[in-house]
Write a structure and sequence with these properties.
Helix content: 40-55%
Number of domains: 6
Shape: globular
Distance between the termini: 59 Å
CATH class of the largest domain: Mainly Alpha
Strand content: 15-25%
Oligomer: single chain
Low-confidence stretches: 102-108, 339-356, 363-372
Mean pLDDT: 79
Largest sheet: 6 strands, mixed
CATH architecture of the largest domain: Orthogonal Bundle
């Protein structure tokens, strides 16, 4: 474990820190965590020290490092917040309190606890964004040492990291943390894919580096003639980003353009575009692969020019061009504010304000979301949403979640504009309010003073949490004096319009059941919502019609139940068959994972008792072959590295496997009937048949049988050899 002197020396290489203050925090953390151990068995003090070092690497200020050292003392020791204020300051107490979980409060479920913890953290973040930076450093070190946790906890924490904390790091532009969090999560959520991908990337590393070095030399030669100061380097894409592209875009590794990129860093924006022009004269750019994040920065204020060009031999590669200041922001995000400027945590500068705009929006809509599930879903939507950039008629850039509509744009401009919206012009053409916006669209909102305002249906059209929140608020503020009566009257009229009698359909029992089904607290609330228009009226009425029809058509209902039972039976059969195919009863030797993708190869169809071998395929898990399969034996030596040892699980009663056997014999009348009868007598099902005869009156019949074991297979073979006219029976190898 690091000594105090060694720790202070290590952090001093990143910044000139107040060693007296930080040393005092080190001593306090050591005193309070004395005797506490981590899951690894190491002293607990190792964790806050590691968190503080990560914060120092980001260039954070003195108070943040103190907060990192003490972030667990209030939660895990008898030390109180009041003592923390007395010993240090209110500022540091605020940082520690923001990171501290709500340990004293009991929640009904994990989701509720997680939602409330995040709510508290966001509220603390609104006062000081350093709370989140400490939390990210805390999570990063915990993920670096996650192997000491229980397997189920590893999966749970990895999912949470990928869902919440990596996107939060991205939102703050701290890509150094984001990339590492994503790669570690991938390692534990998809271990096989991670290992395979890492090996494939490493295998081609030397070849890529030679290519990149050659390209760098060419660029250097060109830039040296342009009288500018620059730095140039190559960088490899992190594994999770590669994995995501391969999964989402169904691409192979060789198809990913930016596996390795070249980064050019210059003094100013003018030089960025000058370098871009030079690059495009040297290599042909690929259409649609140029992105100008300088003119239109990402929401986290990331700026850079990205272009993908074709090399001399047709190989695509990416070049990124940015200034030194842009590079600092790209690496450290909002932390760059502390790394290169002292003290000011108020976020007065425009860049910092823009980076945290999403946080203020989150704090706005979270007040109205009481359901933890809805809170978490909306949070994830805001964190993960890729952006679309559009323009106002005056040329102002507006960023919105991908898939946004003119409604989202209108509410982003102003609440009144959104509420009075009746349509929009996109690129000069009239569109409806549910039109999907694209990058570069010029949007003009059409408003009307006679507009009736938002309806419930607008909640389905709006994609951004900002717009949805403002629509909900508007609906709540409307006059609800006679809404119940209006809703009841609208329901009666709709029932009559559909040819039903309201007295029979709108009975108390039906109404109360429909209220519960639609998850309203009371019938009055249901009537109030119906009065506001939208599709709720038809949905509610259709539920009532369903109840009514069910009661008056009992005979039809019985028939429907009978048919449903048959359908359920068929579904069960299909499920059982699917399970038989998807769960072949084979495991990887030595593996603790039960959910590996394993399938039986159709070329040789092994059955229990056969000697088998696994082959790691690209993107389709592990295919299992018989060891004597001709396809396996014919593989070249370099492919044999993908073999993996597998074995049969304990045999389950009634579990069968498809297996092929070949029958040779004389082509006489009735030979197949005799073969079929022999299988039937053994209670073996024939799943498929392929028969061919030749000019010499010989016949070759390939049977696909449902077999439970090699013993049963041998019995079938012995029986079929005794069929008149059969000369040979053997297993098909491929």
């Amino acid at each position: 474990m690091e000594t105090k002197a060694k720790f202070l020396q290590e952090i001093s290489q990143y910044k000139d820190y107040d060693t007296d203050l930080i040393g005092k925090a080190f001593d306090k953390a050591k005193e309070l965590h004395e005797g506490q151990l981590r899951k690894s068995g190491e002293p607990y003090l190792i964790h806050p020290i590691a968190v503080a070092i990560i914060l120092a690497q980001l260039g954070m200020d003195d108070a943040t490092l103190v907060g990192g050292l003490l972030h667990d003392v209030v939660e895990d020791t008898e030390y109180t917040r009041e003592q923390l204020v007395d010993d240090f300051s209110e500022e540091i107490a605020l940082l520690v309190d923001g990171v501290t979980k709500l340990g004293a409060i009991k929640f009904d479920n994990k989701e509720e606890a997680q939602a409330e913890n995040l709510r508290k953290m966001f509220l603390a973040m609104s006062k000081d964004i350093r709370v989140l930076i400490i939390k990210l450093a805390d999570r990063l070190h915990n993920m670096r040492t996650i192997e000491y946790m229980r397997p189920d906890k590893i999966i749970e924490k990895s999912k949470e990291t990928l869902d919440i904390y990596a996107p939060l790091a991205s939102r703050l532009g701290i890509y150094t943390i984001k990339f590492e969090l994503e790669d570690i999560s991938l390692k534990y959520l998809h271990p096989e894919e991670y290992t395979t991908l890492k090996a494939e990337v490493t295998e081609k590393k030397e070849q890529r580096e030679k290519f990149i070095n050659d390209v760098i030399d060419e660029i250097k030669e060109a830039l040296d003639t342009m009288d500018m100061h620059y730095d140039i380097m190559g960088r490899s894409k992190h594994l999770y980003s590669v994995y995501k592209k391969m999964v989402l875009q169904h691409k192979q590794l060789d198809e990913i353009f930016d596996l390795t990129a070249i980064r050019v860093i210059v003094d100013n924006v003018r030089d960025c575009y000058a370098v871009l022009g030079q690059v495009h004269t040297m290599w042909k750019p690929i259409p649609g692969r140029f992105k100008d994040y300088i003119a239109m920065p990402k929401p986290n204020m990331y700026q850079s020019l990205h272009t993908t060009v074709l090399g001399d031999h047709g190989e695509p590669f990416e070049i990124q061009i940015r200034t030194y200041e842009m590079h600092r922001v790209a690496e450290y995000g909002i932390a760059a504010h502390w790394k290169y400027k002292e003290g000011d945590t108020s976020g007065n500068q425009n860049n910092e304000d823009m980076k945290l705009a999403w946080l203020r929006q989150t704090l706005e809509w979270q007040k109205d979301l009481n359901d933890p599930k809805e809170f978490m879903e909306t949070l994830k939507m805001d964190l993960f949403a890729s952006q679309v950039f559009v323009f106002t008629p005056k040329g102002e850039v507006i960023d919105l979640p991908a898939g946004s509509t003119p409604l989202d744009f209108a509410f982003k401009i102003h609440t009144d504009v959104g509420c009075r919206c009746v349509g929009a012009k996109v690129n000069g053409k009239m569109v409806t309010i549910d039109h999907e916006l694209n990058n570069g669209d010029i949007v003009e909102i059409v408003t009307s003073s006679n507009s009736s305002g938002p309806s419930i249906d607008w909640l389905k059209i709006a994609k951004s949490s900002t717009a949805r929140n403002k629509i909900r608020q508007w609906l709540k503020k409307q006059n609800k004096g006679d809404d119940v009566a209006k809703g009841k009257d609208a329901l009666d009229k709709f029932i009559r319009k559909k040819g039903y009698d309201p007295q029979l359909v709108a009975k108390s029992a039906y109404l109360n059941s429909a209220t519960k089904e639609m998850k309203f607290a009371t019938l009055e609330e249901a009537y109030t919502q119906i009065s506001q228009g939208g599709t709720l009226l038809s949905k509610f009425a259709n539920i009532l019609f369903g109840y009514f029809d069910e009661d008056v058509k009992k005979e039809q209902k019985r028939q429907a139940e009978k048919e449903e039972a048959l359908q359920v039976n068929n579904v069960k059969k299909e499920r059982a068959e699917r399970q038989r195919r998807e769960n072949p009863g084979i495991i990887v030797k030595g593996s603790t994972y039960k959910n590996l993708m394993i399938r039986i190869s159709k070329c040789c169809n092994p059955v229990p008792g056969d000697e088998i071998i696994g082959f790691i395929t690209k993107g389709r898990g592990i295919s299992v072959h018989r060891k004597d399969c001709s396809n396996i034996q014919a593989l070249p030596e370099q492919e044999q590295a993908r073999f993996i040892d597998v074995e049969w699980e304990d045999l389950k009663v009634g579990k069968s496997y498809a297996a092929d056997i070949t029958v040779l014999g004389n082509d006489r009348k009735g030979i197949f009937s005799d073969i079929s009868r022999a299988c039937e007598n053994l209670d073996i099902n024939i799943e498929g048949v392929n028969a061919k005869s030749d000019k010499d009156d010989r016949v070759r019949i390939t049977l696909t049988l449902s077999i439970t074991s090699t013993q049963q297979m041998q019995k079938v073979q012995r029986t079929l050899r005794n069929v008149p006219g059969v000369t040979s029976v053997y297993r098909s190898k491929s």
